[in-house]
Automatic annotation (TrEMBL):
<feature type="domain" description="SGNH hydrolase-type esterase">
    <location>
        <begin position="9"/>
        <end position="182"/>
    </location>
</feature>
<dbReference type="InterPro" id="IPR013830">
    <property type="entry name" value="SGNH_hydro"/>
</dbReference>
<dbReference type="InterPro" id="IPR036514">
    <property type="entry name" value="SGNH_hydro_sf"/>
</dbReference>
<dbReference type="InterPro" id="IPR053140">
    <property type="entry name" value="GDSL_Rv0518-like"/>
</dbReference>
<protein>
    <submittedName>
        <fullName>Lysophospholipase L1</fullName>
    </submittedName>
</protein>
<dbReference type="Pfam" id="PF13472">
    <property type="entry name" value="Lipase_GDSL_2"/>
</dbReference>
Amino acid sequence: MTAYTSLVALGDSFTEGMSDDLPDGAVRGWADLVAARLAERTPGFRYANLAVRGKLVRQIVAEQVDPAAAMRPDLVTFAGGMNDVLRPGCDMDAITRNVTHAADTLAAAAGRLVLFRVIDPTRRMRGSARLLPRITRLLDLVDDLAARHDAIVVDLFSSRVFDSPALWAEDRIHLNAEGHRRVAEATAQALGLPATFDWAAPVPAPVLAWRARARADVRWARVHLGPWIGRRLTGRSSGDGRSPKRPDLVPFA
């Protein structure tokens, strides 16, 4: 495989690593895990993670793309669009323009671009099947851009392993530590690193009695769904006021 010496990761909560919590309160996530694998192979390996939770594609473009391009890394990952797709007033034409601009800019500045075919939510989240036409358009765009730029594609959409609730945090929106570990392995294998386990192997989900399921649903609606709807209605984001956790391309540690 290519000996990469630097990685810059862009995106939203998926790439920031939200819900893969460390003891000190920081978050880790799949991108940190991939950086650790690459750093084991290359002394002095450098890593930046510009992703911030809650960001829409236009915000990723406005705040992250130019700084990432200026770093001129060997490897750059871009994942975004699902925060847009989940919103009722989603403008797919604008998303297409922004994702295309991001991919074109990053591919021109970096040694290799990595794109993601997003996780399929339609079998896991009730009511999300209505989003499938938007998701399909996003997948087609990723495929087209990957062909244009000879990008590496991490195909998460085709795997049913992410249907399992065991890979998701309590909020049911963000991957938990095991979910991030699976994405990290999928990404590492796409980069040509040796496989360490079968990331797509099924994960048994806990079986709950209907009363326990009902209590969990009520708690989820109160603790997670309500605040999420409130932020959408008021135009706020979980990432408001937050800075990237690794804004500079520095040696991984």
